[in-house]
């Protein structure tokens, strides 16, 4: 059964606690952290993770769309993040490797994400350090975009890379996940689906999460 990670980027921040409770039937809670440099948008950061950690037992799935994440991964770990995914395009290969090692040394699960234009082969030098591969189905920076062509092929490439590892590694898809695209992602090999606008725009969020979880 595919895991569902509602993205709080689509939540109402004037009632974040209530919105989180409304999606607690999800498997993970996804945080889209943006710095306005790696992506042309600024969202939220460490204080939000710290406070949300106090109000939910959901695993916190932190997606860092920031430059030089090596400078912050240990602080996100200390704030209570459970999975910390950085972008392979956001720093040098050496710093990326060190950042992944620091995430794991902090006892957390380490992930790498790819912009749509970046091939899965870019992850190969780091594959032994990965517990999660996050495939962007949209250009990172904004929720509510359309699922891009070519994404199923990238999911399949990532699933092949993950299957070749000697340890478990999730294949997570982020962006434009909804009734039309969830099944396509699962068929291609996705094990986790991020859903922001689709879930938070639903009149019955728990029902929507159930629907997406059953997508085939
Ligand atoms: C893009 C973000 C979005 C968000 C989910 O940087 O990562 O993909 O999580 O967006 P939607 O609303 O398309 O599910
Ligand atoms: Zn994300």
Q: What is the correct CATH architecture?
A: Alpha-Beta Barrel
Tell me which ligands are bound: D-xylitol-5-phosphate, zinc ion
Q: Average pLDDT value?
A: 98
Name of the level-1 CATH class: Alpha Beta
CATH topology: TIM Barrel
CATH level-4 homologous superfamily: Aldolase class I
How many angstroms does the end-to-end distance come to? 9 Å
Lateral strand order in the biggest sheet: 1-8-7-6-5-4-3-2
Describe this structure in words.
By secondary structure, the protein is α/β, with parallel strands linked by helices. It has one domain (3-213): Aldolase class I (TIM Barrel). Helices cover 32% and strands 19% of the residues. The chain has 8 helices and 8 strands; from the N terminus they run E-H-E-H-E-H-E-H-E-E-H-E-H-E-H-H. The protein has an 8-stranded parallel beta sheet. Helix 5 (151-163) runs parallel beside helix 6. The longest helix has 13 residues, at 93-105. It binds D-xylitol-5-phosphate (DX5) and zinc ion. The site of zinc ion has 6 residues, from strand 2.
Spell out the key features of this protein:
single chain; 216 residues; alpha/beta; TIM Barrel; 8-stranded parallel sheet; 8 helices; 8 strands; globular; binds D-xylitol-5-phosphate
Summarize the structure.
This protein has 216 residues and is α/β, with parallel strands linked by helices. 32% of the residues lie in helices and 19% in strands. It has a single domain, classed as Alpha-Beta Barrel (TIM Barrel).
What's the structural blueprint in terms of helices and strands?
Layout: E1 3-6, H1 16-22, E2 29-34, H2 46-55, E3 60-65, H3 73-79, E4 83-87, H4 93-105, E5 109-114, E6 132-136, H5 151-163, E7 170-174, H6 182-188, E8 192-195, H7 197-200, H8 205-213
Parallel strand pairs: 1-8, 2-3, 3-4, 4-5, 5-6, 6-7, 7-8
The structure holds D-xylitol-5-phosphate and zinc ion.
D-xylitol-5-phosphate (DX5) is lined by residues 7, 9-10, 30, 32, 63, 65, 138, 140-145, 174-177, 194-198.
């Amino acid at each position: 059964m595919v895991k569902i990670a509602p993205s709080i980027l689509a939540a109402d921040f004037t009632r974040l606690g209530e919105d989180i409770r409304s999606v607690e039937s999800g498997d993970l809670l996804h945080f889209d952290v943006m710095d306005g440099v790696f992506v042309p948008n600024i969202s939220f950061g460490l204080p939000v993770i710290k406070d949300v950690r106090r109000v939910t037992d959901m695993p916190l799935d932190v997606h860092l769309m920031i430059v030089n994440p090596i400078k912050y991964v240990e602080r996100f770990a200390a704030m209570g993040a459970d999975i910390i995914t950085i972008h392979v395009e956001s720093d040098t290969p050496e710093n990326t490797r060190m950042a992944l090692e620091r995430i794991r040394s902090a006892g957390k699960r380490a992930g790498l994400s790819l912009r749509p234009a970046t091939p899965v082969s870019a992850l190969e030098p780091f594959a032994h350090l990965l517990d999660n591969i996050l495939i962007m189905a949209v250009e990172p920076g904004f929720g509510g975009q359309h699922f891009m062509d070519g994404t199923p092929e990238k999911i399949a490439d990532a699933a092949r890379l993950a299957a070749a590892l000697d340890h478990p590694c999730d294949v997570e898809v982020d962006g434009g996940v909804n009734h039309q695209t969830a099944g396509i992602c699962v068929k291609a090999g996705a094990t986790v689906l991020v859903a922001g606008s689709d879930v938070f725009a639903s009149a019955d969020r728990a029902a929507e999460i159930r629907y997406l979880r059953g997508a085939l």
